[in-house]
């Protein structure tokens, strides 16, 4: 078998079989296929796409390329959640704690942010001492004892994906649905969970800018999950404006704790309850979504979800005192507020531009491996649909540099005020297998 023949077949719109995809993934992992041929096939897939069967086969081979966790020692149905990424998306933090508080084991393997999207691990590392790396044994034991652990993936899980992802990032093939879907699902299947709820973002701050694109990706993810024997649900949610009111690592941890204390932002709570309800039903702790929602709401009023989050922090070496004292996390030195220049209603807060603004402050990465400033970010005072008068604060910039002219200009150019506005829909569609 020759790699050039596989490239040619896909370039011409052909369907690759199991042997060809196995040859490709084996060659990626052992280094026998050069980067230029891997990149050529990625570009062919980008333009020609893949059938559902091809996507499932590719994912299966990527999953099998490395270590696969065995979580069978943990009693109960293990349920995880994944997001395709957004701005202000701190959902995993309160969601995991709330679901764990209902008695469902949540073994969550998360990632870091890149570009305008934030990463769960980056947020957790704003908590002094929090360790995102655990051995497999410690990870399994913690989930068994606490119902919850949130860690980063090791290089042993789906190593083919690590190499392919790096090449996608430099060959303009990131936004390919077969490649996105196989990347996400290979790691989730290898992590050993029984069920998965995926938050597929759509809008300016998402990789899938349009609803049809998001629907195609959601269907691909659910199809792959079903083919691998994993019960999978995809929720398509809005990312046209930032989620919640805080953008930035320490700020988003603070907002997550606020939600668990019962006073988080409405849009964040709605999304957490929607995703969480599906997780609770999949975990068989409730017969339907309405009952699941009540269970989740009770974890806030009883304080059990906040207790789970505190236990998570403590178990992974973090300073649990941040629950009461947010100033234990990194803080910005300077604060600059942008105000409304006219009266009306907030019509647009372009999500990806707000994410880029946070990145410019040091809160995000332009390249993998860059160090972050966990204290910087943005606080929104108004969301789309809110009424404003001249001089009302719209966004505060938290920075560790006294001059933020470029950041302020970017934000001002992406705040739109009009006389009439319709707030965006939060949940567009749910796709179940």
UniProtKB/TrEMBL annotation:
Q: Which cofactor does it need?
A: K(+)
Q: Which reaction does it catalyse?
A: 2'-deoxyuridine + phosphate = 2-deoxy-alpha-D-ribose 1-phosphate + uracil; thymidine + phosphate = 2-deoxy-alpha-D-ribose 1-phosphate + thymine; uridine + phosphate = alpha-D-ribose 1-phosphate + uracil
InterPro entries associated with the record: Glycosyl_Trfase_fam3 (IPR000312), Glycosyl_Trfase_fam3_N_dom (IPR017459), Glycosyl_Trfase_fam3_N_dom_sf (IPR036320), Nuc_phospho_transferase (IPR035902), PYNP-like_C_sf (IPR036566), PYNP_C (IPR013102), Pyrmidine_PPas_bac/euk (IPR018090), Pyrmidine_PPase_CS (IPR017872)
Tagged with keyword Cell wall biogenesis/degradation: no
Which EC numbers does the record give? 2.4.2.2
Q: Which GO terms describe its molecular function?
A: pyrimidine-nucleoside phosphorylase activity
Segments passing through the bilayer? none
Look at the named UniProt entry and state the broad enzyme category this protein falls under.
Answer: transferase
Record has NAD as a keyword: no
Q: Where is the Pyrimidine nucleoside phosphorylase C-terminal domain?
A: 345-418
Sorted keywords for this record are: Glycosyltransferase, Transferase
Database matches in PANTHER family: THYMIDINE PHOSPHORYLASE (PTHR10515)
Q: Describe the subunit structure.
A: Homodimer.
Q: What does this protein do?
A: Catalyzes phosphorolysis of the pyrimidine nucleosides uridine, thymidine and 2'-deoxyuridine with the formation of the corresponding pyrimidine base and ribose-1-phosphate.
The similarity annotation says:
Belongs to the thymidine/pyrimidine-nucleoside phosphorylase family.
What protein name does the entry list?
A: Pyrimidine-nucleoside phosphorylase
Q: What is the lineage of its organism?
A: Bacteria, Bacillati, Bacillota, Bacilli, Lactobacillales
């Amino acid at each position: 078998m020759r790699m050039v023949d596989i490239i040619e077949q896909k370039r011409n719109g052909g369907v690759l079989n199991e042997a060809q995809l196995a040859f490709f993934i084996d060659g990626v992992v052992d280094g026998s296929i050069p980067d230029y041929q891997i990149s050529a096939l990625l570009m062919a897939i980008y333009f020609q796409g893949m059938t559902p069967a091809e996507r499932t086969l590719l994912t299966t081979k990527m999953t099998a390329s490395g270590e696969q966790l065995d979580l069978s020692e943990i009693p109960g149905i293990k349920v995880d959640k994944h997001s395709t990424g957004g701005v202000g998306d701190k959902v995993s933090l309160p969601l995991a704690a709330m679901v764990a508080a209902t008695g469902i084991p949540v073994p969550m393997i998360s990632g870091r942010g890149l570009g305008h999207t934030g990463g769960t691990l980056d947020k957790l590392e704003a908590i002094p001492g929090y360790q995102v790396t655990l051995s497999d044994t410690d990870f399994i034991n913690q989930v068994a004892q606490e119902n919850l652990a949130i860690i980063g993936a090791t290089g042993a899980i789906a190593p083919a994906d690590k190499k392919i992802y790096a090449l996608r990032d430099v060959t303009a093939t990131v936004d390919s649905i077969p490649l996105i879907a196989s990347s996400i699902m290979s790691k989730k299947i290898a992590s050993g969970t029984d069920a998965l709820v995926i938050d597929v973002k759509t809008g300016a701050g998402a990789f899938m800018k349009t609803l049809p694109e998001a629907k195609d990706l959601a269907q691909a993810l659910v199809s792959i999950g079903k083919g691998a024997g994993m019960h999978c649900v995809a929720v398509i949610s809005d990312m046209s404006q930032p989620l919640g009111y805080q953008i930035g690592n320490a700020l988003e941890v603070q907002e997550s704790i606020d939600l668990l204390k019962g006073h988080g932002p409405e849009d964040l709570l709605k999304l957490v309850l929607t995703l969480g309800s599906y997780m609770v039903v999949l975990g068989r702790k409730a017969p339907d979504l309405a009952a699941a929602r009540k269970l989740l709401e009770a974890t806030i009023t009883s304080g059990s979800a906040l207790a789970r989050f505190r236990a998570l922090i403590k178990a992974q070496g973090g300073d649990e005192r941040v629950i009461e004292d947010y100033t234990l996390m990194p803080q910005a030195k300077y604060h600059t507020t942008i105000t409304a220049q006219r009266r009306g209603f907030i019509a647009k807060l372009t999500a990806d531009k707000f994410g880029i603004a946070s990145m410019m402050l040091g809160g995000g990465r332009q390249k993998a491996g860059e160090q972050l400033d966990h204290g910087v970010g943005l606080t929104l005072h108004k969301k789309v649909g809110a009424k404003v008068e001249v001089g009302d604060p719209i966004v505060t910039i938290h920075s560790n540099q006294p001059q933020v002219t470029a950041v302020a200009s970017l934000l001002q150019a992406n705040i739109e005020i009009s006389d009439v506005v319709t707030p965006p829909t939060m949940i567009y569609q749910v796709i179940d297998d």
